[in-house]
Design brief:
The protein is 46% helix and 10% strand. It is α/β, with parallel strands linked by helices.
């Protein structure tokens, strides 16, 4: 049976915890890459009509979008280019150049990519989940994405997570998105636990900031591209390249 490492840093990050709260995209599944591609596709197309505005760059994803609720990502990227658009209705047509229209356009691109290729979870994350369950830890997923249940199902992970707090739940409950700790705190409450007994696992700067802002047991950063020092500066207790590193 796979066990957690006895290394001091990893042991300190988990010992004494009762639950682990996972981000989804980039932590459990490589769908963060799909999100990156979908955002680039969206803004490459949108900015073609404004050649005087700086083109979309890879760094824009980490600087303005990663880990945030979808429409916040749209607003923050547009703000970085001094572009102001009408909000539009929440279910605005993806063809419309509004905040919600662009967000819904991105969501369509994302879902098309997932439907075409499926979702394979990170092997190290699957082993980590098994080790956490073997230790008797409770598990939850906390994702800004409104697609979290569909992605978990596609990855074959749904059965492991009785609690999923996603973008739909956040809106329904009036919870601010990451970097606010509210969605993580809500997941802890659904598990019937104080935040102090829950470990947060995140790959995005905004998610690590959310964990750091709440009174959680620890915050484990997974470096999928944000950078080890960046995640530590955002408040991570420990940063690993893969959750396998903790086993």
């Amino acid at each position: 049976m796979t066990e957690f490492s006895n290394g001091t840093a990893s042991a300190d990050a988990i010992d004494g915890a009762t639950a682990i709260l996972f981000d989804l995209d980039g932590v459990l599944t490589p769908t963060a890459i799909v999100h990156e591609h979908a955002w680039q596709d969206l803004f490459d197309g949108f900015l073609k009509a404004t050649p005087e505005v700086p083109a979309y760059r890879e760094s824009d994803y980490f600087d303005h979008i990663d880990g945030k609720p979808r429409f916040d990502g749209v607003r923050d990227f547009l703000a970085s280019r001094d572009i102001v658009l009408p909000e539009g209705p929440l279910d605005d047509d993806p063809a419309n150049d509004t905040v919600h229209g662009l967000g819904n356009r991105k969501n369509k691109v994302f879902n098309d990519i997932v439907a075409a290729g499926g979702v394979e979870p990170y092997e190290g994350s699957v082993r980590f989940i098994a080790a956490a369950q073997a230790r008797g830890l409770k598990l939850a997923v906390v994702s800004s994405s409104r697609n979290a249940p569909a992605v978990l199902k596609a990855a074959g992970l749904s059965e492991h997570f009785p609690v999923v707090v996603d973008g739909v739940v956040a809106v329904a409950e009036g919870l601010p998105g990451k970097p606010s700790p509210a969605t993580y705190q809500y997941a802890a409450r659904l598990l019937g636990l104080p935040s102090e007994e829950c470990v947060v696992v995140e790959d995005a700067v905004s998610g690590v900031q959310a964990g750091s802002a709440g009174n959680f047991h620890s915050v484990i950063g997974v470096d999928r591209g944000a950078g080890r020092e960046t995640l530590l500066a955002a408040g991570a207790t420990l940063v690993v390249n893969d959750l396998d590193d903790l086993l």
